[in-house]
Amino acid sequence: MQLYFYGISGEGRPEGCGLATFTVPGAGIVFRARFKGNQDECEYAALLALLEFVEINPQLFKHRTVEIYGDSFTVVHQVNQKMLCGRALEPYRNMALLYKRKFDYSLSWIPQNENPAHGETQRV
Question: How many domains does the chain have?
Fold first, then answer.
């Protein structure tokens, strides 16, 4: 099952105010929440909210491959351990890695214009 995450900070919002969103198109699920943080923190918050959703709703994902996509180069490459992670983002990255021990998921980068979760931020 394909899942998508997106986080944004700035862009017409007060400084430090952002948005974390994810969508599970195959199940008709859209999640949006305000999040206080910079761009990277908002992107991690979106991924972590999605991972928590998967964990607490195992019936939706039973016997399915969980494929997660996001347009955050930083988050995708840090979680896949292909990019160094600074101290400020380590707690977020480590939490995402902890979820990998709980259930199997893949994490891949996609362009922003192919990310349905990005479109959900336009509706807020």
Answer: 1
* Calpha distance 91→100 (Å, rounded): 15
| 14: pLDDT strictly greater than 80 | no
Answer yes or no: is pLDDT of 10 > 60: yes
Token digits of residue 78: 């840090």
Section 76-94 average pLDDT: 97
CATH number at residue 20: 3.30.420.10
Q: SS3 string of 52-113?
A: HHHHHCHHHHCCCCCEEEECCHHHHHHHCCCCCCCCCCHHHHHHHHHHHHHCCCEEEECCHH
DSSP state of 14: P
CA–CA gap between residue 62 and residue 70 (Å, rounded):
22
- Please compute the mean of the pLDDT values over residues 79-101 and round it to a whole number: 96
| Structural domain containing residue 14 | 2-121
Q: Which amino acid makes up residue 16?
A: G
Over residues 43-70, mean pLDDT: 96
